[in-house]
Specification:
Layout lengths: L15 E11 L1 E2 L5 E6 L4 H8 L6 H6 L3 H7 E10 L5 E10 L9 E7 L5 E4 L9 E11 L5 E10 L19 H8 L2 E3 L4 H11 L4 E7 L1 H4 L6 H4 L1 H13 L5 E7 L5 H12 L9 E5 L12 H11 L6 E6 L9 H10 L4 E3 H5 L15 H4 L8 H19 L24 E3 L8 E4 L12 E3 L6 E3 L5 E3 L8 E17 L8 E5 L2 E6 L8 E22 L8 E9 L1
Parallel strand pairs: 11-12, 11-13, 13-14, 14-15
Antiparallel strand pairs: 1-9, 2-3, 3-8, 4-7, 4-9, 5-6, 5-8, 10-15, 16-25, 17-21, 18-19, 20-25, 21-24, 21-25, 22-23, 22-24
Helix pairs in contact: 8-14, 9-10
């Protein structure tokens, strides 16, 4: 009879800090039926997680997290644990390093398997076979046995000798029913504006009429950070709350049209397609969320105001709400956007105003949540964060429900405060044509199917953005160009960003003059990038030529579409 084996000597205690702590994750569908969750660590995300979740303040340690060489110098091992509904679940964990030359294929993958019982397993960096192309910590992939499963994930970094980390402080749970929490929600109200339109929609919903809530924005509106994304995101949660509080049966409907990494410069172009669904639906309430995306708006507010006016000018005059989300660095662009909202007397809600003061309170009276509890990563809210956003929207709805005046709201359109250049912008692609455009595709004869995909409405099924595109596949090198003769006064090109090694740059010319180079590597991941080509006071005929950069003519480039103003 064999007795129990003698235990090994305990491993030396090392300082450690969490980069992910008790985060809800969700396995999205893979082709083989398994579920996968991506958690991006590049572009400062890992550093931010070390600060917020791990409490790291040492600038040397934070700097080491930016490169693979620094990561190896700082980190001894990676501790991973997951809790799932079934403790016997097998969960694969991969920490992928990005390559310098081959971003997604050139770096080292640090892998382990853990059970869903919460027991921690370590990945020792000394055991890894590092590649010569390793550049920066890139992304974490968590693969579950079946799609649709959820888990709580913990990841912490154990440090090499000579480095220290603060003691881990356990956080109290958020009391969503407390008076202090209710005060947080109240602080989100920037302006009630004219609540008459909202009141009328609420009354119609109470009477059993069909009403539709539409949300347009970036990745937060898409649901990033929520697990599962389709039902835990703020848009779905606030729609459900509205439905439960004001609806009758199934008379309240949802349109969710968030696209990650994109500004209102793109939102205004896809408004008719993604929100109005090519004019087949008439949303009664439209919530616009671009406060953390519009740093990329070349017009610094003109595109945003053009989108707001586009919504307000719909013939059935929907209610419009401006929502200001916030990044983990406490920043957003609400100071640029609030004057626009005031100009049209719109209801406005600021998540920044609600939660940011909380992050700097000491534990004790009035302390409800921490930054780590609100944020999933540097950019996106957690499930709790999405709940808070939903509650802020519903607080605004309740203000409208309680007003007595239900007279017709003032629908006179004031002059723009920033600009309305693109108020009447329309989409031009292979499906939505324009009689004022003559297109010579040259070598852009293919159609790209590797596109940014988003989850619309309450579904988890990804929908490709701009599927009716013009794609140069790198084979028709005798015709490395696209030409269009178009009558317009403003024109926006939407092209595909990419991190793949075979992506081409394209030089853009308008009327024979070089305008700019479209570089798919600037952002480095597959998504839709709008850039302005023409912006003039009056309409005239222009010749636009998009020509593959001479050094890249054996590579690929995709024109997703155009936004034009006649």
């Amino acid at each position: 009879m064999n007795g129990p084996a003698a235990p090994k000597d305990p491993e030396k205690r090392r300082d450690s800090f969490y980069i992910i702590k008790n985060k809800d994750i969700f396995g999205s569908q893979m082709e083989d039926g398994k579920g996968i969750q991506y958690l991006y660590q590049n572009d400062g995300r890992l550093v931010n997680s070390a600060q917020i979740t791990g409490g790291i303040t040492d600038e040397t340690e934070l700097g080491l997290l930016r490169t693979v060489d620094g990561f190896k110098k700082l980190v001894h091992s990676i501790g991973v644990s997951a809790e799932t509904k079934n403790p016997a679940d097998n969960v694969e964990f991969i920490f992928q390093m990005y390559g310098k030359n081959d971003i997604y294929g050139g770096g080292t993958n640090l892998k382990t398997y853990v059970n869903g019982d919460g027991a921690e397993k370590r990945i020792y960096l000394q055991d890894a076979s590092w590649t010569d192309d390793d550049f920066e910590p890139g992304q974490i992939k968590v693969i579950m046995e079946e799609a649709g499963r959820t888990a709580k994930l913990n990841v912490r970094l154990y440090l090499n000798d000579g480095f220290t980390a603060p003691e881990v402080n356990e956080e109290e749970g958020i009391n969503f029913g407390s008076e202090d929490y209710k005060n947080i929600i109240k602080n989100s109200l920037v302006s009630k504006g004219d609540l008459t339109k909202l009141k009328n929609v609420i009354d119609r919903a109470k009477n059993g009429e069909d009403v539709t809530l539409a949300y347009i924005g970036g990745s937060i509106t898409q649901g990033a950070g929520a697990a599962p994304l389709n039902t835990e995101c703020y848009a779905y949660k606030s729609y459900q709350l509205f439905k439960e509080k004001f609806g009758k049966g199934n008379n309240v409907h949802l349109i969710k049209a968030g696209v990650g990494g994109t500004p209102s410069e793109l939102g205004m172009i896809r408004f008719e397609r993604d929100v109005l669904r090519d004019y087949t639906v008439k949303p009664d309430i439209i919530i616009i969320e671009f406060a953390v995306n519009d740093e990329g708006d070349e017009t610094k507010g003109d595109c945003y105001e053009s989108l707001v006016r586009k919504a307000l000018n719909l013939p059935y005059k929907p209610a419009v709400i401006l929502l200001f989300s916030v990044f983990a660095n406490d920043e957003n662009l609400q100071e640029r956007m609030i004057p626009i909202g005031n100009n049209y007397n719109l209801p406005m809600s600021s998540i920044k105003n609600a939660v940011t003061p909380q992050f700097y309170k000491e534990y004790g009276a009035g302390k409800v949540l921490t930054k780590n509890q609100f944020f999933y990563d540097i950019y996106h809210p957690s499930n709790a964060g999405h709940t808070i956003m939903s509650d802020c929207i519903m607080y605004l709805m309740e203000q409208a429900a309680n007003i007595e005046n239900t007279s017709t709201a003032n629908t006179d359109m004031p002059a723009p405060v920033t600009g309305n250049t693109f108020e009447n912008v329309k989409l031009l692609d292979r499906k939505d044509t324009y009689a004022g455009a003559e297109i010579t595709p040259g070598g852009f004869t293919d159609t790209d199917t590797v596109l940014q995909c988003v989850e619309m409405d309450g579904s988890l099924d990804p929908v490709p953005e701009f599927p009716y595109n013009w794609h140069y596949n790198g084979k028709e090198t005798d015709k490395p160009y696209f030409e269009m003769k178009i009558q317009c006064r403003a024109l926006v090109l939407v092209f595909k960003d990419s991190g793949e090694t075979d992506a081409a740059r394209a030089d853009i010319y308008a009327d024979g003059k070089f305008v700019r180079t479209a570089d798919p590597y600037i952002n480095g991941w597959v998504h839709c990038n709008p850039v302005i080509i023409i912006n003039e006071n009056s309409s005239s005929t222009h010749l636009v030529r998009i020509e593959i950069h001479k050094a890249d003519q054996d590579k690929k480039f995709t024109i997703l579409g155009f936004g034009y103003v006649q």
